[in-house]
């Protein structure tokens, strides 16, 4: 298994290396709380996911308006009953075309790789030969992925000069720009504009209009550039801090019970059982004594004393293992 850090190698360089060598396997990338994985087959990428971008295929088709919510639910029900692939069910039922599904899968890969290629810090591991069974068997060349990611990064750099990111809170401009009545905006921009209320974040607006964060940033960037919308920087900072707190809290809640419960369950029975076993033999000896005849008392007592000698020896011998254990622990 190959391991390294992104301080020494950039992901685009690593991707190109895998492509040139026509490698097959899995690459895992991690950075703090973020993680992702990319599967290669003969140097091309056929699956990729990022913790920042994990939109299911069905939801992506709905967002692209190629599928309705009811159609997706129907396909999922059929899948549960028959075990057939959801994609095959949707195509055979005429809900979507194979081209629409392949385009959505390709976009899934592009979105995930775009998220990962933005990382300049982190660690990666490579496992040769690892494979994954996928719903839609398509592959995307590394060069096309890098070119698309570079194009998005160039656009993002310009956009972020005015809109910081998904947690940006936007509000209507207090003073409309000159010639506002003559500004032409697209239907997508109208749909986003009516949702700007001074409290919704860019990410929330994007989900309401069925767009991912990058596409929503491009739409709202046009409205900000036109002077129709402004960014509330104070509210944006508060929204970003609140989102970060939500991500951190579950980790603290999960860890605490895992440490406490096993300790109580394992220790308690271990000390109780030996105490009960040692105490049992003494009452047995006391009950047996009264049954002896008076004439045989002396003889029985003599026999008892003789037979008891091994027990005394055993009782004396018992601590020896304990002594060894104490010596072992002391070492």
* Low-pLDDT regions: 249-326
Determine the structural class based on helices, strands and strand pairing: alpha+beta
Q: Give the strand tally.
A: 7
Number of helices: 13
Order of helices and strands: EHEEEHHHHEHEHHHEHHHH
Inertia-based shape: globular
% residues in beta strands: 5-15%
What number of structural domains do the residues give? 3
Major sheet description: 5 strands, antiparallel
Describe the structure.
This protein has 331 residues and is an alpha+beta fold. It folds into 3 domains: 2-147, no CATH class; 160-259, Arc Repressor Mutant, subunit A (Orthogonal Bundle); 290-331. It has 13 helices and 7 strands. The protein has helices at 11-20, 57-63, 69-82, 86-92, 98-117, 142-159, 187-193, 202-209, 213-225, 233-279, 281-288, 297-317, 319-330; strands spanning 2-5, 25-31, 34-41, 44-50, 123-128, 169-172, 229-232. β2 (25-31) and β3 (34-41) form a beta hairpin.
List strands and helices in order, with pairings.
Elements: E1 2-5, H1 11-20, E2 25-31, E3 34-41, E4 44-50, H2 57-63, H3 69-82, H4 86-92, H5 98-117, E5 123-128, H6 142-159, E6 169-172, H7 187-193, H8 202-209, H9 213-225, E7 229-232, H10 233-279, H11 281-288, H12 297-317, H13 319-330
Antiparallel strand pairs: 1-5, 2-3, 2-5, 3-4, 6-7
Any key phrases for this structure?
331 residues; alpha+beta; Arc Repressor Mutant, subunit A; two-stranded antiparallel sheet; 13 helices; 58% helix
């Amino acid at each position: 298994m190959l391991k390294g850090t992104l301080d020494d190698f950039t992901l685009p360089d690593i991707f190109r290396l895998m492509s040139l060598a026509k490698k097959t396997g899995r690459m895992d990338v991690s950075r703090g709380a973020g993680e992702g994985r990319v599967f290669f087959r003969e140097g091309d990428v056929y699956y990729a996911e990022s913790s920042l971008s994990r939109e299911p295929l069905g939801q992506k088709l709905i967002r692209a308006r190629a599928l309705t919510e009811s159609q997706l639910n129907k396909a999922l029900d059929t899948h549960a009953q028959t075990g057939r692939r959801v994609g095959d069910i949707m195509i055979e039922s005429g809900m979507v075309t194979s081209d629409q599904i392949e385009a959505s899968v390709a976009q899934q890969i592009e979105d995930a790789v775009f998220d990962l290629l933005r990382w300049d810090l982190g660690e990666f591991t490579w496992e040769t030969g690892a494979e994954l069974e996928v719903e839609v068997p398509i592959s995307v060349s590394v060069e096309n992925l890098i070119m698309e990611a570079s194009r998005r990064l160039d656009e993002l750099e310009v956009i972020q000069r005015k809109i910081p990111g998904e947690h940006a809170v936007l509000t209507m401009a207090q003073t409309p720009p000159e010639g506002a009545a003559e500004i032409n905006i697209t239907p997508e921009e109208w749909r986003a504009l009516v949702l700007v209320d001074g409290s919704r974040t860019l990410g929330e607006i994007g989900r309401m209009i069925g767009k991912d964060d990058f596409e929503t940033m491009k739409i709202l960037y046009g409205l900000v550039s036109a002077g129709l919308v402004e960014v509330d920087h104070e509210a944006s900072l508060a929204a970003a801090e609140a989102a970060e707190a939500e991500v951190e809290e579950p980790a603290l809640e999960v860890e605490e019970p895992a440490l406490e419960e096993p300790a109580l369950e394992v220790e308690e029975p271990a000390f109780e059982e030996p105490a009960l076993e040692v105490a049992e033999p003494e009452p047995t000896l006391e009950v047996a004594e009264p049954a002896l005849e008076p004439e045989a008392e002396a003889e029985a007592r003599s026999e008892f004393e003789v037979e008891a000698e091994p027990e005394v020896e055993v009782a004396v011998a018992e601590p020896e293992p304990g002594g060894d254990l104490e010596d072992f622990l002391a070492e």
